[in-house]
């Protein structure tokens, strides 16, 4: 029996977390094949060509889907990432595979110099990483992975080992990254927020002098069309920001770029709910994490809500003002249970209105305002629809009682995943595949949608937000 058959065939007389009979076999098997093809033995790459290392929030989303095929492998996915944590608590956005040639990806380990430039911040000596971070989805992933096979998780001490690392990660963000002083986390590089090329970054990035084009070589253009990728000017600014942060020894503080992002902070609040579940499972005494999640939600409303836009906006910390661009990030707080009802209703109206078009002009939620001057249906994060943000919004709709819209979005995602070959991202109007095919989180989140039965009216992530244990 081959590896895919082993992962997707139900052993006689055994209870397993995933029941393939409930899912269209062809889509399920194809998604499993993507994850098998991207598996390195200890983690899953987003794609073999364009992204040949381990990425932080990619691995969290991948573990959420992988738990339905192999809870052990999902645990290993997260354990590999957490093993690269720095002593100051940060989880780096890339963990480099030493067997991959340096010129296969830029910025490569010799650019980040984590073991030397990051020494004061406690970068690990035995593995090379980047020095920036990505959104904190990891506690959510760890709790969902535990629930896939609690017996295996307890026998391996999975949560007992993960919990102190996750608590330190949240502590780093809350105590080292409140650069605006208002109780929210700031990102210091567009890559940290994960939506790398969003027009929301254009205004604060305009202050950054780009690195000279001759000082770096873009490996991403070997795998993607230039018209779908960030411009050379934007990329030069990304390189400059990263190099300046490295040359400061990865010390956090006010710099040329510091932005409070609604999705990053909403995911931190959601992960605080998950971390409370983990602490309860372990019988651990600690801070009131649900209260912390509620404080983060209140700070989001106070600092980032814009009534005129009908959604949350990013805040430029250095300029002290909201950035007047509508990105999908500003809809992600719909995931939070403590969001005031009138704000949740307004977010749904914005989501389904002319700016994002869900249920009308678009098949999936775009990454940026359809009516914005910078909208481009194919260029990286400047308009295309991504599976991870749509997955988060499907959960947010379901949490706030929008079951019909959530079901329709789920159906659209499943159809698009299969038709696009699990593309990295798609045109929001036509669902035409963009980026690379066989993308890790696209396949993994497809498996998660196949597993969660919408007839129950709720799903794994929704149950966390509603307080189930």
Structure explained in plain terms:
The chain is mostly helical and 469 residues long. 45% of the residues lie in helices and 4% in strands. The protein contains 19 helices and ten strands. It has helices spanning 3-8, 25-38, 56-66, 71-82, 109-112, 114-117, 138-148, 150-156, 158-176, 190-193, 202-205, 232-247, 262-282, 289-304, 341-352, 387-399, 403-420, 440-451, 460-466, and strands spanning 54-55, 94-95, 186-187, 259-260, 305-306, 311-312, 315-316, 321-322, 425-426, 433-434. A hairpin with a 4-residue loop joins strand 7 (315-316) and strand 8. Helix 3 runs parallel beside helix 7, helix 4 (71-82) packs antiparallel against helix 7 and helix 13 (262-282) runs antiparallel to helix 14. The radius of gyration is 20 Å and the shape is globular. It starts with a helix and ends with a helix. The model is unreliable at 9-18 (pLDDT under 50).
Q: Quick summary of this structure?
A:
With about 475 residues, the protein is mostly helical. The protein is built from 19 helices and ten strands.
């Amino acid at each position: 029996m081959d590896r895919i058959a082993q992962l997707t065939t139900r052993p006689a007389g055994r209870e397993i977390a995933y029941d393939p009979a409930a899912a269209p076999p062809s889509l399920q098997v194809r998604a499993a094949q993507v994850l098998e093809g991207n598996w390195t033995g200890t983690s899953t790459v987003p794609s073999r060509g364009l992204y040949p290392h381990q990425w932080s929030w990619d691995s969290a989303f991948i573990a959420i889907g992988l738990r339905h095929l192999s809870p052990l492998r999902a645990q290993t996915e997260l354990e590999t990432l957490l093993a690269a944590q720095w002593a100051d608590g940060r989880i780096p956005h890339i963990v480099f595979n030493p067997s991959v040639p340096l010129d296969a990806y830029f910025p490569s380990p010799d650019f980040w110099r984590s073991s030397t430039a990051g020494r004061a911040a406690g970068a690990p000596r035995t593995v090379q990483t980047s020095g920036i971070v990505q959104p904190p989805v990891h506690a959510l992933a760890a709790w969902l992975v535990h629930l896939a096979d609690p017996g295996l998780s307890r026998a391996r001490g999975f949560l007992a080992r993960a919990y102190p690392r996750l608590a330190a990660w949240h502590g780093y963000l809350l105590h080292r990254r409140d650069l605006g002083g208002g109780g929210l986390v700031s990102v210091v590089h567009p890559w940290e927020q994960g939506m790398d090329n969003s027009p929301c970054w254009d205004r604060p990035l305009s202050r950054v002098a780009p690195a000279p084009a001759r000082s770096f070589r873009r490996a991403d253009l070997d795998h993607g069309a230039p018209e779908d990728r960030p411009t050379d000017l934007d990329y030069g600014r990304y390189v400059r920001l990263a190099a300046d942060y490295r040359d400061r020894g990865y010390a956090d503080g006010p710099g040329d770029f510091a932005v409070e992002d609604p999705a990053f902070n909403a995911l931190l609040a959601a992960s605080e709910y998950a971390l409370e579940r983990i602490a309860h499972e372990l019988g651990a005494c600690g801070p009131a994490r649900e209260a912390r999640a509620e404080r983060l939600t209140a700070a989001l409303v106070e600092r980032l809500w814009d009534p005129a836009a009908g959604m949350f906006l990013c805040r430029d910390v250095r300029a002290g003002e909201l950035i007047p661009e509508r990105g999908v990030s500003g809809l992600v707080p719909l995931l939070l249970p403590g969001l005031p009802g009138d704000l949740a209703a307004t977010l749904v109206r914005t989501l389904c209105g002319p700016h994002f078009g869900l249920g009308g002009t678009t098949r999936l939620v775009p990454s940026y305002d359809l009516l914005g001057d910078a909208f481009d249906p194919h260029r990286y994060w400047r308009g295309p629809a991504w599976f991870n943000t749509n997955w988060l919004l499907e959960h947010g709709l379901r949490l706030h009682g929008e079951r019909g819209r959530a079901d329709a979005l789920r159906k659209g995602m499943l159809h698009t995943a299969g038709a696009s070959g699990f593309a990295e991202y798609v045109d929001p109007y036509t669902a035409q595949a963009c980026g690379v095919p066989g993308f890790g989180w696209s396949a993994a989140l497809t498996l998660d949608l196949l597993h969660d039965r919408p007839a129950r009216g709720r799903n794994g992530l929704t149950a966390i937000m509603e307080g189930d244990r």
